[in-house]
């Protein structure tokens, strides 16, 4: 099946972001995508997060998600996008929503690992997920697992998704720039794909807020598609037979001698 990667540069204007999202989804659908992935904070973003992250948060059935569902219905695709979810007065949730032509909310994943590194403190404005269970959904005969940005640095997150049958892991992100950060992004995505023998799809915000560099890596660690610094859309094939082929050559999942358990 085909998966679309939609790298946009979200702003503080929800309407502008919705327009960018809609155009990107339309482009990916025209190229045959059945699932289209957008970045973390696709709904609302700032160069430096502030209290508006909480003030602008919405429920999962709020105006923005409802309009994205309308885009999914119009284009006939599953849309995966990041939003700020209202969960309380003091902090929001950093949530990835999956919406389909039929269902407003197929599922939602609230970010587990908040970005408390490289001088950042995401927990000031964002509430971490309380439910640590893996979140997956099915589309086009394949199973997709979800994680978000900083989760990439924790290999057990991807391994638990694979233990639940994920064929591909989708990683919406807003990977902040900094020393060696772009190298970390590409290296870690390839590592997660190789060690789990799955496709890994990382979709980031375009610069300057993020490093961009959205990419899809196959189960052997081959980068099969990659965007650079500009907003853009690309569509890739995610092939179940390729996964099976790689796992026949590299049976590391069946050779391992222990499993990852949740804390």
From TrEMBL:
Residues 1-240 form the CN hydrolase domain. It comes from the Bacteria. The keyword Hydrolase applies. Keywords: Hydrolase. The keyword Hydrolase applies. GO terms for molecular function: hydrolase activity. Belongs to the carbon-nitrogen hydrolase superfamily. NIT1/NIT2 family. This is Putative amidohydrolase. It comes from Nocardioides aromaticivorans.
């Amino acid at each position: 099946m085909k998966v679309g990667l939609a790298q946009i540069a979200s702003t503080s204007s929800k309407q502008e972001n919705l327009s960018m999202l809609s155009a990107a989804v339309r482009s990916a659908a025209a190229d045959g995508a059945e699932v289209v992935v957008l970045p973390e904070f696709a709904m609302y973003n700032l160069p430096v997060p502030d209290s508006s992250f909480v003030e602008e948060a919405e429920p999962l059935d709020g105006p923005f998600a409802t309009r994205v569902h309308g885009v999914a219905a119009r284009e006939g695709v599953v849309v995966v996008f990041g939003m700020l979810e209202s969960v309380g007065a003091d902090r929001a949730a950093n949530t990835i929503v999956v919406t389909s032509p039929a269902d407003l909310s197929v599922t939602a994943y609230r970010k587990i690992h908040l970005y408390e590194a490289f001088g950042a403190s995401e927990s000031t404005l964002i509430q971490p997920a309380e439910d640590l269970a893996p979140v997956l959904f099915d589309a086009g005969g394949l199973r997709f697992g979800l994680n978000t940005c900083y989760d990439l640095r924790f290999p057990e997150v991807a391994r638990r998704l694979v233990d639940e049958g994920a064929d591909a892991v989708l990683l919406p992100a807003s990977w902040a720039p900094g020393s060696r950060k772009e190298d970390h992004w590409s290296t870690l995505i390839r590592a997660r794909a190789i060690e789990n023998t799955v496709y890994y799809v990382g979709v980031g915000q375009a610069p300057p807020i993020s490093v961009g560099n959205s990419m899809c890596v196959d189960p052997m660690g081959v980068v099969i598609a990659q965007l650079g610094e500009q907003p853009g859309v690309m569509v890739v094939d995610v092939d179940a037979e390729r996964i099976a082929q790689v796992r026949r050559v590299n049976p590391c999942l069946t050779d391992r001698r222990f499993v990852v358990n949740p804390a």
